[in-house]
Write a structure and sequence with these properties.
Elements: E1 4-7, E2 10-12, E3 18-24, E4 34-39, E5 46-51, E6 57-59, E7 67-72, E8 77-82, E9 91-97, E10 102-103, E11 107-111
Parallel strand pairs: 2-11
Antiparallel strand pairs: 1-3, 3-8, 4-5, 4-9, 5-6, 7-8, 9-10, 9-11
């Protein structure tokens, strides 16, 4: 059974940090084919971070230098480290498996003072 479960969202002040987790079911073998998207209210869902074929990160211009994608194969988990958060980063963050075209349920990130 394919499953992606996000966690780690919450309310944070501008300039703060969060680490999001995406726990994948063991049927998802290709963690490097799992990416992070986000959707802000009234806006389209957008790609935030994904792995390159060499396993490094590829990022949206709006988050370069602040967000970092990583994975732990032993835990079958993909992470998204969010640093120097801005109010415009407020959104629901989703992980997505390209291997199965499967979305997680999302986790809310709110950046506000």
């Amino acid at each position: 059974q394919v499953q992606l479960v996000e966690s780690g969202g919450g309310l944070v002040q501008p300039g703060g940090s969060l680490r999001l987790s995406c726990a994948a079911s063991k049927s998802i073998f290709r963690l490097n084919a799992v990416a992070w998207y986000r959707q802000a209210p009234g806006k389209q869902r957008e790609l935030v971070a994904a792995f390159t074929p060499r396993g490094s990160g590829n990022y949206a211009d709006s988050v370069k230098g602040r967000f970092f994608i990583s994975r732990d194969n032993a835990k079958n988990t993909v992470y998204l480290q969010l640093n120097s958060l801005k109010p415009e980063d407020t959104a629901v963050y989703y992980c997505f498996s390209y291997e199965y075209s499967y979305w997680g349920q999302g986790t809310q990130v709110t950046v506000s003072s």
